Amino acid sequence: MTLKICVAQLNFVVGDLSGNAQKIIDAAHLAYAGGARLLLTPELSICGYAAEDLFLRPAFIAACDDAVKTVARELSGLKGLVVVVGHPTGGDVRSKSVAVQRRHNAASVLSEGRVLETYAKRELPNYQVFDERRYFTPGRGVCVFQVGEGADRLSVGLLICEDAWFEEPARLAQEAGAELLAVINASPFHIGKGDEREQMMRQRAQACGLPLVYAHLVGGQDEVVFEGHSFALNADGSVAGRAPSFEEKLFEVQVERAQSAIKLVAEVAPERTPDADLWDALVLGVRDYIGKNGFPGAILGLSGGIDSALVLAIAVDAIGPDKVRTVMMPSPYTADISWIDAREMAARVGVRYDEISILPMFEAFKTSLAGEFRGLREDTTEENIQARIRGTLLMALSNKFGAIVLTTGNKSELATGYCTLYGDMAGGFAAIKDLAKTTVFRLARWRNAHDPYGTGANPIPERIITRAPSAELRPDQTDQDSLPPYEVLDAILERYMENDQGLEEIVAAGFARADVERVTRLIKINEYKRRQAPVGIRVTHRSFGKDWRYPITSKFRA
Description:
Layout: E1 2-9, H1 17-33, E2 38-40, H2 58-74, E3 82-94, E4 99-111, E5 114-120, H3 132-135, E6 144-147, E7 154-160, H4 167-175, E8 180-185, H5 193-208, E9 212-216, E10 218-221, E11 224-227, E12 231-233, E13 239-242, E14 249-258, E15 261-265, H6 274-292, E16 298-301, H7 306-319, E17 324-328, H8 336-349, E18 352-355, H9 359-373, H10 380-401, E19 404-407, H11 411-416, E20 429-430, H12 437-449, H13 462-466, H14 486-498, H15 503-508, H16 513-525, H17 527-531
Parallel strand pairs: 1-2, 2-3, 7-8, 8-9, 16-17, 16-19, 17-18, 19-20
Antiparallel strand pairs: 1-14, 3-4, 4-5, 6-7, 9-12, 10-11, 12-13, 14-15
């Protein structure tokens, strides 16, 4: 037998039901013309992932049902084509105090205008950014459907994402006669996740002795990014094919049967480095947040420091230099080299660059507060005033011209509160919110050595990378005046915040108790700031977003 499967690794938009349906229809026509007889779309492709509390609205579920019917109707003339479409279905019984769920995270098998079967996801994830048990109830069935005719007939077992991480759903599909597993997914990116998926699916294929096709979503949705990286595995777990990451692709897999054995054949995209994945995730996250929400461009404060330099490089790769504007806002404490480096970088990447001094406004604030502050020395109050002036200026430019403000704070700063509420935290999207400071430096060097989007090599002046980081809010200030060295801070942050290690465990690993106490205390007392921070891209397995939900008022510290 020879049968072609096509994976629609596409970028869907949450809530754009007609647009998503049309993407599936267009992909189906292209796949059919290329000889495919099975098209797999990602999990919840009809509505986009994740639609969050839209799932609770009956009108939304009804509109999704209509969109599935539209896809079935529009593809009715493609004889012999089977299309798997992910969508929510069902309803619930609700009052103001009680809700009994009857909704499912489902996928329907469509062919020649009919819905042949509908399968409901059995295993519902409820960890990290996942909250599926809030919206769905687990399915109980098994779905094995037929593709092709005569000698080319193939029995396909359908699984949805988390189902394939457990033994039972695949085993039940095998027992029901599946010869191949089709796994449709919407699995958010974090560093190393692609390798984890392949390894887990390798175990699943080997345990069942069945080949497996993994169909994955691509695109940015609020704080999460989906990297594509769809793939096909043979029954022994070997990689038969792999789609490129971070781009839309109709990924074709050829199914060949020799006697009783099935072999999959497809193109294999090259292996990638973690930093290449990380860069592409940040670029895609920025591009889709700006594009899907209709912003004409982006604006950011360019300080001459490493964080704003990295955000600028990401923004230029994401939307092009003509849509990015930078503003340098010097204060009395801004070093000359900051002006020079900021101007140089703006020129290197070809973006608009303006300078607006905050000195007159800073002096006006101090004059207005002179009576209240009489006899008191300057401290972080005056530092924060400077940051808030800058935030006000950026937001004014955003309001006037429509461009979104990209904030430039990193994970280390957000963790410890080394940022100003309504100041440098003011903005619409936090591109590097989930990057530790040490990662910021490493990624800046990676971008200087690579030019993945053709916007120019070596965009960040070397001195920006090598100089000691400083907020420049008082004379001769450096970050390490207030924080432990970033190598220490970030290592403690990873252990405590990302891996849930306790204080004593971290101290036992060789860290100074004073540093551990200091960093973990700062993490705890700055929860109120993080609650008011803009949404930003998640690239680690735990970010300060949906997967970090701690009380502001609490006496407990681990």
